[in-house]
Amino acid sequence: MKNREMIAKEGLDMSTVSKMGKPVTIAIDGLSDWRIVVEEGAIASETHAARELQHFLREICGAELPIVSDEQPLAEKELIVGDNRHLRELGIDLDTGRLGQDGFVLKTVGNRLVIAGGQPRGTLYGVYSLLEEELGCRWFTRTESLIPKRSSIQLPEINSERIPRIATRTALFMDTYDGDWAARNKINCWSPYPLEEKHGGKIAMSEHFVHTFYKLVPPEAYFEAHPEYFSLVDGTRRGSDAQLCLSHPDVFRIALEQLRRWMDEEPEAAIFGVSQNDCTGACECEQCRALDEEEESPIGSILTFVNRLAEAIEEEYPDKRIETLAYWYSRKPPKHLKPHRNVIIRLCSMECCFMHPLDQCEQNDSFVQDVVGWGKICDQVYIWDYLVDFKHYVMPYPNLRVIAPNIRFFTESNVSGIMAQGAHTSLKTEFAEMKSYLTARLLWNPELDPQTLIQEFATHYYGAAAESILAYIRLLEDRVDALVGYHAGCFDPPTDKYFSPELLDESERLLGHALRLADSPEIEERVRTVHMQVKYTRMMLLTEKLNQVRSDFFKEAEELGITRVTEWKPLEESKERLETGQEPF
Ligand SMILES: [Zn+2]
Ligand SMILES: [Zn+2]
């Protein structure tokens, strides 16, 4: 169980935390005379919060606390869930504006405990944090949880407020696309997560969320009659593989009409993309160039255009925001302009090295500088971050230790949204579930100790084999440190330089040991899944006896439920490609 000191150190904005005070006793010897109070007609996520609290308390101590409506008179021994009449009778005025959609307070009031937050998710998150921090509950994967049993429950006096610094949080791994898992670990965004109303829903991205210039002003519809709407590149207007002429008044008018249509078509979506296509080709006409020169960055013409659209829609669509990319040629922040209040600026760490923390590797200097620069002029800087090698999903990619420092760097730079992209098209890839869990926990609270999170996960997930698996992870990390000048991005191939024969042999020795220690069929399968990382690497580096190694690898991959070894191709296709001398992706 975490103590008060540890909670006080967490990286969330909090008001006060009591370290001493009167504890409350909720259950003794499996019996409880407490009850859970929720508002009559509460929203789905607050009703669910009460049920989740009831469910997990019963699992912990065996007692089933009744859930009652706030129309019952206020009494002692109440767990007051959500903003309701009892809360107000106690004189607690919940500052829902300040708490936002996800923030909450936990507060002992005499012989009662208040768990209440902003809507739609704050109260539910408050329940999960209480269970996690005070009672040791963990939701590691969609099937593996730790709910410690204890017949008596005593809670210290609590008085804390939590508002996450990272307001929009996602870790994209197919293994964890589960609404309950996501809500319990406070993931609140992105379409693959089936977050329902009972989970408080999610911050929904429009289906038009990235690289949308040609969707806003389609060349098929306009280029022939109006080439001047499109980028002037090297003296020629281009209707493909380029951008728009953002200073043209008709382009603004057409884009605004299209954007309004999208917003009407997707009333539930909160974030809409107005962003450059995934290529270069910015407009070089006199007006566009003047805007870029004024701002000393190609973002000048883009942000001028995006700000105007944002201003034009803000009254009509007050809950919607426009996201644009500061990406590739446009990443450098502008000299004078500032993003409008409803504009999100998203940067992508795609070309960075992930073997070292972002701000501790010279390869990443310009990215770091741009993130810091944007953070100074914008309160809605979002990051598209990368957690795996997308060409080689199964290869060892020892970046577990950079996840926490990177998230901390982002929060210190005023970043308020992170989408950490992992293996989103395959199951059972390199440490997928561990990375997803670690990332989700740290996105909510960047100050948590990553080693503790990894250790807890490994102990539960790998049982008796945990220490050998952790030794294997350390071996891979030590190899990075031993190779001075070694860096790796998220599309790099396995190399002889990193994967020396000694490293692969020692990996097999540790994993062989882990396999002998595995004390259940599930754990044995998980250890074998880790072993596939080394087998994959050997297959990719080998030149002799390749056919046998390859057919063994793919047979075992299928058996273990690995559905892809690369982002873009199904397993069978990767196998065929390798057989015909091509890359697997
Ligand atoms: Zn132009
Ligand atoms: Zn590096």
What are the SSEs and their pairings?
Layout: H1 4-9, E1 24-27, E2 35-38, H2 44-61, E3 67-69, E4 78-81, H3 85-89, H4 96-99, E5 104-108, E6 112-117, H5 122-135, E7 138-139, E8 145-146, E9 153-155, E10 159-162, E11 168-172, H6 179-184, H7 213-216, H8 219-222, E12 232-233, E13 236-237, H9 249-265, E14 271-273, H10 286-295, H11 299-313, E15 321-325, E16 343-348, H12 365-377, E17 381-386, H13 400-412, E18 415-421, H14 432-444, H15 450-462, H16 466-482, H17 501-517, H18 521-541, H19 546-560, H20 571-579
Helix pairs in contact: 2-5, 9-11, 10-11, 13-14, 14-15, 15-16, 16-17, 17-18, 18-19, 19-20
One zinc ion (ZN) is lined by residues 353, 355-356, 361, 363, 487.
InterPro entries: DUF4838, Glyco_hydro_67_aGlcAse_N, Hex-like_dom2
Keywords: Hydrolase
Pfam families: DUF4838, Glyco_hydro_67N
Overall outline? globular
User: How many domains would you count in the coordinates?
Assistant: 2
Total number of beta strands: 18
Multimeric status of the protein: single chain
Low-confidence spans: pLDDT under 50, at least 5 residues? 1-20
Strand neighbour order, sheet with most strands: 3-2-4-6-5-10
Structural class: alpha/beta
Strand proportion, as a percent range, falls in 5-15%
The percentage helix is 40-55%
How many strands, what sense, and barrel or not for the largest sheet?
6 strands, mixed
Ions and ligands:
zinc ion
**Rg measurement, Å:** 26 Å
Roughly what is the average pLDDT, rounded to an integer?
95
Number of helices: 20
C-alpha end-to-end distance: 45 Å
